[in-house]
Structure formats: C-alpha cells, structure tokens
Amino acid sequence: MLPTPAHQGLSLLVGVKRCVDYAVKIRIRPDGKGVDTDVKNSMNPFDEIAVEEAVRLREKHKDEISRIAAVSIGPAKAADVLRQALAMGADDAIHVEVGKDAVLEPLAVSKILAAVTAKEMEKNADEKEAWAWHLGKQAIDDDASQTGQMLAAKLNWPQATFASKLDFKGKFAKGEKVEVTREVDGGLATVETTLPFVLTTDLRLNEPRYASLPNIMKAKKKPFQKLTLKDLGLEEDAKPRLETLEVKEPPKRQGGAKVGSVDELVSKLQEAGRI
Questions:
Q1: What are the Cα distances from residue 162, in Å, to 140, 153, 183, 203, 227?
Q2: Sequence-ordered list of residues with C-beta below 8 angstroms from that of 154, at least 6 positions apart, any chain
Q3: 86, 219 contact by CB (below 8 A)
Q4: 160-196 in b/e burial notation, b at 16+ Cβ within 10 A?
Q5: Are 110 and 150 within 8 A, CB to CB?
Q6: 83 to each of 37, 127, 211, how far by Cα in Å?
Q7: pLDDT score for 4
Q8: pTM for this one?
Q9: Distance between CA atoms of residues 5 and 118, nearest Å
Q10: What is the pLDDT at residue 123?
Q11: E-assigned strands of the chain?
Q12: How far apart (Å, rounded) are the C-alpha atoms in residues 91 and 217?
C-alpha cells in the first residue's frame, strides 16, 4: 500500500487494449485455434470509457491530477490505441511491446501492469504522487473480466469494479475518500475507498469523446515510452498457462415459422417437445 501522508497530486494510469473492432464480423482461423485478427482493430470500448473518465476527472480537478498515462501491452500496432488515448487527453504513453503472435492471459497482463506501476513509482519517488489505475471492466475479445481484480491483488490495493459512477470526496492531496457506484446483478452497490486503488469501468460511467483533429496532431508530439518484457524481468511470467484446443462458431439460429391458429401453435410446440 502507498503511504498515507499528503500527496502533491494524483497520477492516473489507464490501461488500453487493442482488440478486433466491435463492428467486425468475427471469423475463425483455418487452424481452429482462435479468431482472425488481421482485420480492423481499435481500442477496447470499455478502455475508451476508462480514458474518458480520467480526462473528465482532470477537467473537474485541474490542480490535483498531475498526470494521465496510457499503458498498453501488445505488438507494434498497439501504438495506434495509445495515440488515440493521447488524442483524447492523456499526457504520455507507455507501450510494453510483445510479439505479434504473443498470447497474454489476464494473470500475465496483471503482472506486467504491476511491474510498470512499480517502475513508474520508483521513477517518480520524489514527487510524492498518489496513484490509481483505470481499466475497462473487460476486453471484448476474451471477455475475461479478470485483469483489474488480479492487478489489485498484485499491488495490494483496494479495487472498485464495474463502476457506473465515480465521486472523489474532498481533495486528493489529503487522501480523502472515493465513492464508487457499482453495477451488480441486483441493481447498484456503493462502495467507499481511498487512494491508491484500481477502478474498472462499466458502460454507463460515461460516453467517450471523439478526438479532434488538432488533438490528434498534438498527440504525435507527446512522450511515448517503449518497454519490453525483458526490461520488466517478466519474460518467463508472460508465457501462457492455457492451451486453446478448439474455437467454434455458435450454432446458426433456425428460421422461424408462422402458424394460423393457437391450436397449430400448441401442436408445433408438442412436436418439438417444448410442452
């Protein structure tokens, strides 16, 4: 846990993942071991919400948030989503570059993000910063919804997952409390925590902005740091622990049929063994 004395400001680290675009029709690879990723890719939609919330927080608390850093783990092309985060309002980017065919499971991702956190905290030790992570609640490619929780465990920080509302009570520098409204099966639950903490964002938290052309141009000049797994000492930890045996498309839905009467409907349902 971070020390409790007063902090000079808050550094927000925001995780962004490059995924197959949500509008693309998914195709199974010929080897049946995964999906074809050589299609249009974009930032994971839940991560866009995480970036937007960080930027909105800074707009609301201008003097208290000293930095927003976007972090992504992926191949060289992952730089695209980092540039998008910079255009949305992040100050700098950290790219942990891995091979194009690397398979990173949530546990490996959480270890990498924890190592990035430790590296950034050590580098800024004299700044007396407070720290927090914003992550999307899940990625739309694997739908694991595990990275945020695992990262909180690795850092030994509190976690507030599936957030639909975020409210900082008082000033960050005083270490005052954060109130988070979470979406749960039975409705909404409100939890309270203090810095540092890990937040995962749900759909109703906000609506992400479109990056303007001037901000896209400015993003090209913002600091962009590149790291490797070797830099973080995690070459072995990032190896997958699971093997995908087979990926199948869901069965195609059968077409519907019209009936002329209630009696015919009942007869059809009986034939199908539904009643």
A1: 15, 16, 6, 8, 29
A2: 110, 111, 113, 114
A3: yes
A4: bbbbeebebeeebbebeebebbbbeeeeeeeeebbbb
A5: yes
A6: 20, 26, 10
A7: 45
A8: 0.84
A9: 19
A10: 84
A11: 9-15, 18-20, 41-43, 65-74, 92-97, 129-136, 159-168, 178-184, 187-193, 197-201, 224-228
A12: 13
The reported pLDDT for the residue numbered 80 is: 94
Which of 153, 160, 158 shows the shortest CA–CA distance to 188? 160
Cα atoms found within 13 Å of the Cα of residue 177, Cβ hemisphere only: 6
Which stretches within the chain are classed as H helix?
45-60, 79-88, 106-123, 147-155, 213-219, 229-232, 262-271
Per-residue model confidence as pLDDT tens digits over 95-149: 999 987 788 899 999 999 999 999 999 887 776 778 999 999 999 888 899 999 9
What lies within 8 Å, CB to CB, of 99 at 6+ separation is 75
In whole angstroms, give the CA distance from residue 72 to residue 108: 13
Residue 176 CA, chain-centre distance (Å), reads 25
Could you read off the pLDDT of 252-264 as tens digits, one per residue? 887 777 888 888 8
Amino acid at 118: A
Residue-range domains of the chain with CATH: 9-271 (3.40.50.620)
Closest CA to 58 of 141, 158, 166, 140: 166
Across-strand partners of 224?
93
What DSSP state is assigned to residue 46? H
Lowest-confidence pick of 71-85, 111-125, 235-249: 235-249
Residues 225-250 have a mean pLDDT of: 86
**pLDDT value of residue 252:** 83
Joined together, the tokens standing for residue 200 give 């995962």
Instruction: Copy the structure tokens of residue 213.
Output: 């052309």
pLDDT at 235: 83
